[in-house]
Write a structure and sequence with these properties.
By secondary structure, the chain is of the alpha/beta class. The protein has 10 helices and 14 strands. Helix 2 links the parallel strand 4 and strand 5. The protein is globular and about 55 Å long. Bound molecules: flavin mononucleotide. One of its GO terms (cellular component) is cytosol.
Length: 362
């Protein structure tokens, strides 16, 4: 995992990626990233690939307080310092493009608007974090076909802004029960038009977003994150294997920078999809404990994955690749200051070594 990885435009110092992690520290009104964000990402630039926290692509895409945006040029401008800082350390950074769909609340959206989704299906029995604390979910309203087209365009515009301020690429967030997966899953997409009704229909939005972003910035700058069979956020995918095989078969010829597969359901998606995906595969697992670097190394050794994404361990071990290379002890996952606030719990986790770079491996 600690050796360099090259494929197409990707030239990574090692096969470790920092998984995308929302930290809720952007200016809540402007959506401009935190003044500490450049330091946070620079400290972690020893990762072969940094994937930013989810970044909203339009005003209705925002999921909660302190989430940054790439919906306007002013928001994009705030990321320039981040990309410069990471590049000064020799790192590579992709921006994660996010639309939360129904996973938000009128208090988080402009003018108290209702959240949007493929269909008007509410989350029951769980609450969502807002600036006024945890509140019940509201029933979202279904997007019109015209709005779907505009949303696809918003992903492409956000990608253009990201590349314009120096990101090496973008990762489209198709995982964890947010808008793209709400279209894919059969319990959240009850549409009977071209965007629902069949596997092809339910995959149409994901494909249109990928194709629009590819047309805007080029396939070799685009990754897609998926979490097949992930029941998080009340999704139910009764046919995950069939659906995601169809998605990957449709995506494979496009030549994307990577496919990022998050495993957390019964379906062993990483191993199954690897056989159909000819490009770079980034793998991440999701469970109560942080995913293990050793398990990641096994995935690489067994040929199931090319790059391993780690989340929580990167939060508390900014120099994680160097620690792994040196056999230095690892700090445990974070217990406080995960979302919101300033530098505390964000940029004050110390490095174990003076030199965060991984020693060269022959
Ligand atoms: C605080 C926190 C914020 C997260 N935010 C995002 C996000 O913005 N986008 C995303 O795709 N996944 C997000 N995730 C999921 C992580 O990318 C990752 O899949 C998860 O933490 C499992 O990996 P780990 O065990 O290495 O931490 C988040 C996870 C955590 C802990």
């Amino acid at each position: 995992m600690l050796r360099p990885y090259r494929a197409g435009r990707l030239e990574l110092a090692n096969r470790l990626a920092m998984a995308p992690m929302t930290r809720g520290r952007a200016d809540d009104v402007t959506g401009v990233p935190s003044p500490h964000a450049a330091t946070y990402y620079r400290q972690r630039a020893g990762a072969g690939l940094l994937i930013t926290e989810g970044v909203y692509v339009n005003a209705l895409a925002k999921g909660g307080p302190g989430i940054p945006g790439l919906a306007t040029d002013a928001q994009a401008g705030g990321w320039r310092e981040v990309t410069d800082a990471v590049h000064a350390e020799g790192g590579t950074i992709f921006a994660q493009l996010w639309h939360v769909g129904r996973m938000t609340h009128p208090l988080t959206l402009p003018d108290g608007e209702l959240p949007v989704a493929p269909s008007a299906v509410a989350i029951e029995g769980s609450r969502i974090f807002t600036r006024d604390g945890l509140l019940d979910h509201v029933t979202p309203r279904a997007l019109t076909v015209g709005e779907i087209t505009r949303t696809v365009g918003d992903f492409a515009s956000a990608a253009r802004r990201a590349i314009g301020v120096g990101f090496d690429g973008v990762e489209i967030h198709g995982a964890n029960g947010y808008l793209i997966q709400q279209f894919i899953a059969d319990n959240t997409n009850l549409r009977t038009d071209a965007y629902g009704g069949s596997v092809t229909g339910r995959l149409r939005f994901a494909m249109e977003v990928v194709e629009a972003v590819v047309a805007e910035v080029g396939a070799d700058r685009v990754g897609l994150r998926i979490s097949p069979d992930n029941a998080e956020n009340q999704l139910a995918e009764t046919d995950a294997r069939t659906t995601y095989r169809a998605l990957v078969d449709a995506l494979d010829p496009l030549g994307l920078a990577y496919l990022h597969v998050l495993r957390n359901g019964a379906y062993a998606a990483i191993a199954d999809l690897r056989t159909r995906w000819s490009g770079t595969l980034v793998a991440n697992t999701n469970g109560p404990a942080p995913s293990s670097p050793d398990a990641g190394a096994r995935l690489v050794r067994d040929g199931h994955a090319d790059v391993i994404a780690l989340g929580r361990l990167f939060m508390t071990n900014p120099d994680l690749p160097a620690r792994l290379a040196n056999g230095a002890p690892l700090a445990g996952p974070p217990t406080e200051n995960v979302y919101g606030g300033g530098a505390e719990g964000y940029t004050d986790y110390p490095a174990a070594t003076d030199d965060p770079r991984v020693p060269a491996v022959a």
